[in-house]
Backbone:
DNA sequence: ACCTGAACACCGTTCAAGT
DNA sequence: ACCTGAACACCGTTCAAGT
């Protein structure tokens, strides 16, 4: 039965299914997507241009959940809140993140977030060049932290006998996501404190 | 001519070719690797178990270029030096990094580095749990910064009309790798300063 | 021990054919 | 407008056959 009465597909439906497939399987394929949607693989191409576009749609979907909001309080509190919100968006679907790093971004879907960060750093008194570096720094730290969230526990298993400092540290490690969350909060506090210290007038 | 007089392949030769292929093409395939090595794809399986093992071998190769060295000076200088060395190793082959994030690490090849960082943080007076968080923070920041290095210039093209703070910042952006390098140095200074400030006794 | 050729299952994508 | 079936090029991997 070609062309059923009710629409079987749309870019949104396909993106939803792809996110669910990555959440459960760690990756997605066009045939796998088609099967979940009870459709033939070629049908997908009536709605999306291909696999790359689905990845970009998933990225846009994740980014669209970021609520920038009005700045409240100190600029450093604004930066911390934006960084937490940014990571929260990634953390909702941690297994998507490796797909994002593999593929070049095609549209600045995170521009609203970047600009809110840039405004906060501008308020802090940084020069435009420093603002760019500071936004990049927050972006790098959040992305790296989000990747840490997707890492399995086994990463740290079977450590060598030597290295007492790291072994002692590892023995305190609980399961994810608590460990990654705690590390992110620790790092964010340090990073924001360090940015405050870099401020020209100590604002 | 099966079995030529001189060995055509080895795990090292295959890993070398894979790194070169990723450097130039952004990815590698078994047939592509075989062609470069003037061999049939099935020949590769006499030396490596498969694609995943090649990725792990590339990771190990990159990590093996990290020189930990003896700590000199303040613990915070040691941390900064290790972070720079870690990122330098990644930066030598930036297009490899997305492959690393896609695949789970199978052996703690970076343990020497992690332990040197852990020792520095222990010297600083952090508790074992804080040491783990601090090592994770440096790891996340370096990985995120290395991914930034692989990002093409176009990422920032065609920004919206709104958003003056970010637009002003973007106008200062030079080409990579200079832009990414400068952002990393800025972020590293902030992060290390922030870590010093988190120290129990202000050591 | 190690390279080859043939084969397999699988993937992304295209396109004419249907309604 | 949109789903299908068939087809294509390509990929990762296996394995018996060669020397």
Residues:
């Amino acid at each position: 039965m070609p062309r059923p009465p009710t629409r079987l597909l749309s870019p949104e439906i396909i993106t939803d299914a792809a996110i669910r497939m990555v959440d459960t399987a760690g990756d997605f394929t066009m045939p796998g997507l088609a099967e979940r949607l009870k459709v033939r693989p070629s049908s997908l191409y009536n709605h999306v241009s291909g696999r790359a576009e689905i990845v970009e749609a998933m990225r846009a979907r994740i980014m669209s959940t970021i609520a920038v909001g009005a700045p409240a309080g100190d600029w450093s509190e604004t930066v911390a809140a934006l960084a937490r919100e940014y990571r929260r968006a990634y953390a909702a679907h941690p297994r998507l993140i490796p797909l994002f790093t593999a593929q070049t971004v095609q549209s600045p879907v995170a521009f609203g977030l970047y600009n809110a960060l840039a405004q906060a750093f501008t308020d802090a008194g940084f020069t435009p060049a420093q603002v760019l570096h500071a936004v990049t720094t927050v972006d790098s730290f959040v992305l790296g932290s989000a990747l840490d969230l997707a890492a399995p526990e086994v990463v740290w298993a079977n450590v060598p006998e030597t290295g007492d400092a790291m072994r002692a540290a590892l023995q305190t490690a609980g399961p994810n996501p608590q460990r990654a969350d705690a590390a992110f909060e620790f790092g964010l506090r340090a990073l924001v404190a360090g940015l405050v210290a870099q401020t020209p007038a100590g604002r």
In short: The two ends of chain B are 67 Å apart (CA to CA). The longest helix of chain B spans residues 128-150. Residues 1-3, 29-31, 41-42, 45, 50-51 of chain B lie near DNA strand D (CB under 10 Å from a C1'). Chain B has a mean pLDDT of 91.
